[in-house]
């Protein structure tokens, strides 16, 4: 690979890692109701403000050897992991969608999914502020894509209305799943936040993307949850957050959705029958 081809990928990774650093702030502070801007980043143990050179994504944690410079207590490895994951996802989006409007749009989508997945892992909640804002961004994104195709008010309105309808479909679809699951198992099978996350995903991916994401999430959840139960890591009474699986399903659908849907259709609906 030439330097000219590597440089954009490197820039995408650095940008993603920097955004991942901010996402760490969102993941930690939003559920606590704290400001995302003030005070600046600090050690969660001793509250000492981090130096600028200690706050460099990924490298700052490595320089500090995973410990606060002031109190020497450990800093969780999840911080550089989120930054690294965000950087890799930014690169993946750039490689898949190139220098088009899809790339910055899907970067936003990825950010919302990553933040929501981590918050759900921590708190078993999916904050309305994130699901609602991510859904509205999806409406705007679809409107913008429609404008790029045909720059008319009617086209933009049609794109936004389509996205709104998809969100309603996602919300109702998951509400029905939750009602059916509750009746089948005699207890709440799905939280309200999952339905709102589904509405967000449907706005960005459409109904086919939502259905595929849900199928992938359920499959991954069954495999991981079943393995954890078999190994004794989880008990049958423990609740498992579904948001991270939905987010992972949405990411897989974003990158491989068309291939997976085409493969499904070719297997179950082969041409010529």
From TrEMBL:
Entry's Gene Ontology cellular component terms: plasma membrane
Transmembrane segments: 6-28, 75-95, 101-118, 130-148, 160-181, 213-234, 246-269
Subcellular location: Cell inner membrane; Cell membrane
Main localization, broad class: membrane
Topological relation to the membrane, as annotated: Multi-pass membrane protein
Keyword annotations from UniProtKB, A to Z: Cell inner membrane, Cell membrane, Hydrolase, Membrane, Methyltransferase, Multifunctional enzyme, Protease, Transferase, Transmembrane, Transmembrane helix
A Pfam family per the record: A24_N_bact
Entry EC number(s): 2.1.1.-, 3.4.23.43
Domain Prepilin peptidase A24 N-terminal: 14-97
PANTHER family assigned: PREPILIN LEADER PEPTIDASE_N-METHYLTRANSFERASE-RELATED, TYPE 4 PREPILIN-LIKE PROTEINS LEADER PEPTIDE-PROCESSING ENZYME
Record protein name field: Prepilin leader peptidase/N-methyltransferase
Organism placement in taxonomy: Bacteria, Bacillati, Cyanobacteriota, Cyanophyceae, Leptolyngbyales
């Amino acid at each position: 690979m030439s330097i000219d081809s590597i440089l954009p990928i490197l820039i995408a990774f650095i940008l993603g890692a920097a955004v991942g650093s901010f996402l760490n702030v969102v993941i930690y502070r939003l559920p606590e109701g704290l400001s995302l801007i003030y005070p600046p980043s600090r050690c969660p143990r001793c509250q000492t403000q981090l130096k600028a050179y200690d706050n460099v994504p990924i490298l700052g944690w490595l320089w500090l050897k995973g410990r606060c410079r002031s109190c020497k207590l450990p800093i969780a490895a999840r911080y550089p992991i989120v930054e690294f994951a965000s950087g890799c996802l930014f690169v993946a989006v750039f490689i898949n969608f190139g220098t088009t409007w899809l790339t910055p749009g899907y970067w936003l989508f990825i950010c919302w999914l990553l933040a929501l997945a981590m918050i759900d892992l921590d708190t078993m909640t999916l904050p309305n502020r994130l699901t609602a804002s991510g859904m509205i961004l999806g409406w705007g994104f679809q409107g913008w894509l429609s404008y790029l195709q045909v720059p008319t008010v009617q086209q933009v309105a049609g794109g936004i209305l389509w996205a709104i309808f998809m969100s309603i479909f996602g919300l109702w679809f998951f509400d029905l799943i939750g009602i059916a699951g509750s009746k089948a198992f005699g207890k709440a099978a799905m939280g309200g936040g999952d339905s709102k996350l589904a509405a967000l995903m449907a706005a960005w991916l459409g109904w086919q993307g939502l259905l595929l994401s849900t199928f992938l999430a359920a499959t991954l959840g069954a495999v991981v949850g079943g393995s954890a139960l078999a190994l004794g890591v989880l008990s049958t009474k423990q609740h498992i957050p579904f948001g991270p699986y939905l987010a992972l399903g949405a990411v897989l659908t974003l990158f491989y959705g068309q291939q997976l849907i085409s493969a499904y259709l070719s297997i179950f609906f082969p041409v010529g029958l």
